[in-house]
Amino acid sequence: MRRTNHMLAALIASGLALSACQASNSTPSSSTPAATSPAASSASRAGSEAVTVVDSRGNQITVPTEIDSVIVTDNRLFETLSDWGVKLSAAPKAIMSPDSPYATDESIVDLGNHREPNLELAVAANPDLILNGQRFANHYDQLKQLLPEAALIDSDIDTEKPLGDELKRQITLAGQVFGKDAEAKALIEDYDKAVARVKAAYKQDQKVMAVITSGGKVNYAAPGSGRTLGPVFKELGLTPSLETEGSSDHQGDEISVEAIAASNPDWILVMDRDAAVGGPDGTEAVPASKVLADSAALQNVTAVQKQQIIYMPNDTYLNEGIQTYTEFFNALADAMEKSA
């Protein structure tokens, strides 16, 4: 039986909602109840048997056969679900790639960003199904408390596990949930082909450096686990030009540009954080290519002299889905094949 907004509003009134959620981060259309939004017909499994999936927490979740309202908070899934035609009733537009069709869809209620989400709007959306993860992972327990009758699926990936395994597990899960198993399989095949291309073209004696640019600065991305570029080294079997302890996250680590240059990488992999979100504190973004070109310390580096610098897609910081890595790996393979 569908839960009512009245009952859930009572939960909020009892103090379950965060006080920070009172500040609305929504677009003008966010005040419109999701019931008036287009039904998530593409997500409906009407007439089919109920499907039970295992989410990222190991929980067995039964997916409703009738889905009228879907909330998704996981950045890694927006590109895929948009391509699959899945209609959303609510999502955090504030942390979507501006290129996503969802970002400009006025029928989708904006939940704000992960730092100050407006979860009251999630309640008002009266969801049958929620896929939660990535930046919203820490809000799982509150969503479960506020929306106990919704099928809440943790779709996040484990950044301590191999990147490819987790991306493929996540997209397989999404395919099971929305009845898109064949489409999910195709995405996995494309990813595997891209990985195979890089491994075939890469010469093990060539050293690789990963950096993240932001605010006009070049930041070292430590090889290993974490987000964006860190796990790429293990996934592709790349030889780091410099290894030091670091967070290997999405912002970069405090290693000097001179140290990066001294390691003299044959290849530099770049994630331009500001290409997705603009410069820090509202400043104008400086393209990563200009940041590297303007760095005197890097000009004698082999990768710079040979123009062996490969950039992740511009929306990577707000995406990180399987397609992002497939595109990036194919670009890297193209360059390595040409340099052979």
From TrEMBL:
- PROSITE patterns the record matches: FE_B12_PBP, PROKAR_LIPOPROTEIN
Q: Known InterPro entries for this protein? A: ABC_transptr_periplasmic_BD, Bact_iron-sidero_bind
Leader sequence segment: 1-23
Record's subcellular location = Cell envelope
SUPFAM superfamilies according to UniProt: Helical backbone' metal receptor
Residue ranges annotated for the Fe/B12 periplasmic-binding domain, each copy included: 69-340
One Pfam family for this entry, by name? Peripla_BP_2
| Any GO BP | iron coordination entity transport
Name its species: Arachnia propionica
Q: What is its main location?
A: other
**Where does the record place the region Disordered?**
22-47
Protein name, entry field = Iron ABC transporter substrate-binding protein
Record family assignment: Belongs to the bacterial solute-binding protein 8 family.
Query: What are the alphabetically sorted keywords of the record?
Result: Signal, Transport
| Keyword Signal on entry | yes
**In the UniProt record, which is one GO cellular component term?**
outer membrane-bounded periplasmic space
Q: Tell me yes or no: is Transport among this UniProt entry's keywords.
A: yes
